[in-house]
Design a protein that fits this description.
Two copies of one chain form a homodimer. Chain A has 555 residues and is an alpha/beta fold. Helix content of chain A is 40%, strand content 19%. The first copy, chain A, has 20 helices and 16 strands. In chain A, the strands form four sheets. Chain A has an eight-stranded parallel beta barrel, surrounded by nine helices. In chain A, helix 3 links the parallel strand 3 and strand 4. The longest helix of chain A has 18 residues. The C terminus of chain A is likely disordered. The interface between A and B is large, with 122 and 123 residues. Chains A, B: Pathway: Amino-acid biosynthesis; L-isoleucine biosynthesis; 2-oxobutanoate from pyruvate: step 1/3. Chains A, B: Belongs to the alpha-IPM synthase/homocitrate synthase family. Chains A, B: Keywords: Amino-acid biosynthesis, Branched-chain amino acid biosynthesis, Cytoplasm, Isoleucine biosynthesis, Transferase.
């Protein structure tokens, strides 16, 4: 479907998104995210509320010195306070100091918030909207008007609500954004209300000179994306949302879901096709910057969004991807994955093995042995879905192809916060190429000490170990109900500067679990990675070779 | 809104939900979940596919011996294979062996899946549907027919798709469930297709003797809930979904979102009002059983769903909850929370303190000191949103009300996997009531050893410590990009058998972070909990007193 109509994307990750519990952005974080959004081609990026906190003011100054390439940076602010002249409202001075071309002003639509919240009259509410927008227009700003609590307000007092928008238009606002601030509106209501607003304000979505409608949805009823789509169908030409749907309470409309729906499925024009392929990467980068684990089950961009686990699905997708995939994952920079797990039938194992370059015959009894071993380990708490390097080691072992790079005899960890403020000390005993080694190292914590001691021992025999380092370390408590005696699953991501791979260790002792994952990480890097890199080098000539390497970099 | 129409809930957590990456259910897990769903009043509970794996067979036998109280347990199966008699299909024998009154049979709606997947003809597809349903009817079963890939199939070949449903009706199916198997359909499409189906099959949603439509949506486009609502508006009277939206790829329609939307917002009759208040608890219990962290931002049931963080929201909600809450959290067993965080203004701290029974004056300079200390700790990686016990200790300290229960001098941890397979050993030095103590204990891992050593030292002075135990232990790596040297945040939940409370510790050394959280947990249990319990006892007489205790039990 292609309808050639433009929908303007407006990102508020840096303002509304940052309200999410658990997010706390530094100035540098905000700048990095803004540049990432700019690169992806988002036309409007809301940077913050300059008067509300000093960091947001600094953010606008920084980006005024070194501007974004294409996006319009937008400063956010409320209308003036009641009974104050716009020119004397400090917040409005702060928004002017942000020096953006565009500003977003939010005002009250719901009479309850005017009379109970602001303790003022509906007339004064209209005056606040008019004065603020007229003042900002007189200072050369272009204005987006966010109608806060639009849907609740319209249901309670449609006359006053419509008056607020008429006031905003006559004062010079170019966009009127219907905000579902409490997030409780359902799609059918959004449809009829947005349709009525369009008619009552005589807005023509196809006329460039007409003021236009936008939608700003929250996800408290789980339908923020559907509400945004409903508004677009009724003529809204701007959607406001956040990357990964971050936002207060249940979040804002998720742009990573909205954009592919609008563009790939409904044919609206939002981003260049090339920019759209950056979507998955942008989603993951932003989640790294805000330091939240990515939602692996997120539509379109999640690691599991195109993952196939059930046996029937796996064999059908191998025949024809259309059968179980609603869009091509490549369009948004994601990729298909075949998942290894408890439920996997033989076909999953075969398909995964073949992605490692191992051709297994399904009648080979080794296959059954691998499946049995897999189930045994999973019942102990292992999971290989995120630890493909460990899974490949398991496969190679079953096939008699696991090389002995070193033989570990054990470790000791000592951590003394009693007599000194010392770091942790780890001792490791290992046999390499017939030689017994005892090595010791200090680290900031016990796992770092273990990793250092092992690499110190091995580097004499395998110099490439000097380039290995741990890039991620994740701990998951299984059966967390049993407190500190619970089983611990540790995922370790290692890198040699070019490739990343993930290994897993499980134990009731967090140190032992960490140790196992670290050891497998080093073994994989030494024994399998060189082979993989050669093959990938060769395959990259052929189509699709990059995917193989991609599937190893399982982040 | 109340419309008195019944919508039948059909839960498939145990079958489709279990397909989610990361979920692996034991027989006991499945039984526990089924009983929980039964208690909440879900009328149809799909238990599994009896022929597909032995565990599902056992599950049905177990529940046949000790049946559910009210729910209909449903067994799931495909139609017979092509060119085989129904009576000779092993899968159909297995579904009969499950001994349920109701069975769900899924068949193909999309011609592509018939010709390419099954390699058979469209005529044989109709015969497979007819034979299977007629056979099961002849053996006394009542039949729900799941029309797999309905929407894709209808768009490709509406004549064949409608024929499959007509065949299912004439063979005796009572429910026809439109499945969006690939999850790519958008609400507007669901509306018009469901409307057309209702007309073409002459289904009357209000006639008890008519076959009825159902909807089974997947979330690949982020609109599974909205699609389900759209189908209900068009006359579907059954919604299939899973608790917490678990399911393959991006999951199934989330019943925890759908139920409140249907019942509280749209007025359909799904559960008793009393049963609905179990929703939040059920959501969290199921997430514990499947061992996945609950989605704190989930609509309705998430811990953040009614959490208020921004200063404006907090003060408005204090005046009138309606201003920023779309429904009353109590209706679904959730509760309002005021969040302590970096962004919190003074009003959040005041409001939280008052929930601890501490009345602060906002002009008191101590308030500013508390805010400053909070920001300092948060910049080190502390977070108090989930660790209210630690926050209360912080408040009491600032107010000069923190009692010294014991004075820690330090700890040593030793873990030897070199000379022995021993457990970890922890030594702790502590001064209690003027007496210096050195204690040592063994544990299965270092944290458990630390906890034991500390309690061993303290129990002589504080016998109640004998009843304390750790009930949950969570590790989060902050800044995970720096590998094993990253900062670690540990949350520890402690219990004395009646109350639970959560404390936090942060350090680059995972042992030190754990130690800090464990120590604060014991301190809170000794110094603050007794006071809290007395107050709560007093307050429980008044309305709302239970909430106070509830807010301490922050799970």
């Amino acid at each position: 479907m292609k309808n050639d109509k433009r929908v303007w994307l407006y990102d508020t990750t840096l303002r509304d998104g940052a309200q999410r519990e658990g997010i706390s952005l530094s100035l540098e974080d905000k700048i990095t995210i803004a540049r990432e959004l700019d690169r992806m081609g988002i036309p409007f990026i809301e940077g913050g509320w300059p008067g509300a906190n000093p960091r947001d003011g600094q953010f606008f100054w920084k980006l005024h010195e070194e501007p974004l390439e294409r996006a319009e940076l937008v400063a956010f602010c409320s209308t003036r306070r009641p009974n104050v002249r716009a020119a004397e409202d400090k917040m409005l001075q702060a928004i002017l100091a942000a020096k953006t071309r565009w500003v977003t002003i939010f005002g009250k639509s719901w009479d309850l918030h005017v009379t109970e919240g602001l303790k003022t009259t509906l007339e004064e509410n209209l005056a606040m909207i008019r004065d603020t927008i007229e003042y900002l227009r007189s200072r050369g700003k272009r204005v987006i008007y966010d109608a806060e609590h639009w849907f609740d307000g319209y249901l309670q007092n449609p006359v006053h609500a419509i008056d607020t928008l008429k006031t905003a238009i006559s004062a010079g606002a170019e966009w009127l954004v219907l905000c579902d601030t409490n997030g409780g509106t359902l799609p059918a209501e959004v449809s009829w209300i947005a349709g009525e607003v369009r008619e009552k304000l005589a807005i023509d979505p196809d006329d460039e000179n007409s003021p236009q409608l936008g939608i700003h949805a929250h996800n408290d009823a789980g339908v923020a994306v559907a509400n945004s789509l409903a508004a677009v169908i009724e003529g809204a030409r701007m959607v406001q949302g956040t990357i990964n749907g971050y936002g207060e309470r249940c979040g804002n409309a998720n742009l990573c879901t909205l954009i592919p729906n609008l563009q790939v499925k409904m044919g609206y024009d939002c981003l260049e096709t090339e920019q759209l392929t950056r979507l998955t990467e942008t989603s993951r980068k932003v989640s790294e910057i805000v330091n939240l684990a990515p939602d692996e089950h997120a539509p379109f961009v999640g690691r599991s969004a195109f993952a196939h686990k059930g046996g029937i699905h796996v064999s059908a997708v191998a025949k024809n991807p259309l059968t179980y995939e609603h869009i091509a994952p490549e369009a948004i920079g994601n990729q298909r994955r075949i998942v290894i797990s408890d439920q996997s039938g033989l076909s999953n194992v075969l398909s995964k093995a073949s992605s490692f370059g191992i051709d297994l015959d399904k009648n080979d009894p080794t296959c059954r042995q691998i499946l049995d071993r897999l189930k045994e380990l999973e019942s102990e708490g292992y999971q290989f879905e995120a630890a493909e390097a460990s899974f490949e080691l398991l496969l190679r072992e079953a096939l008699g192809q696991r090389q002995t790079m070193f033989d570990l005899k054990g470790f000791q960890v000592h951590c003394d916060m009693l007599r000194s403020e010392s770091e942790a000390i780890a001792t490791i005993k290992v046999t390499v190429k017939g030689e017994d080694l005892l090595e010791v190292a200090e680290g900031i914590g016990p796992v770092s000490a273990l990793d250092k001691a092992l690499r110190k021992a091995l580097v004499k025999f395998y110099p490439e170990v000097a380039h290995f380092h741990l890039t991620d370390y994740k701990v998951r408590i299984l059966d967390s109900g049993s407190g500190t005696e619970a089983k611990t699953r540790v995922l370790v991501e290692s890198s040699n500067g070019h490739h990343r791979w993930t290994t897993v260790g499980v134990s009731s002792n967090i140190l032992e679990a960490s140790y196992r994952a670290v050891v497998e990480g080093i073994e994989y890097g030494l024994s399998i990675l060189p082979r993989r890199s050669e093959e990938a080098g060769g395959r990259r000539q052929e189509a699709g070779g990059g995917d193989l390497v991609g599937s190893q970099i399982s982040r």
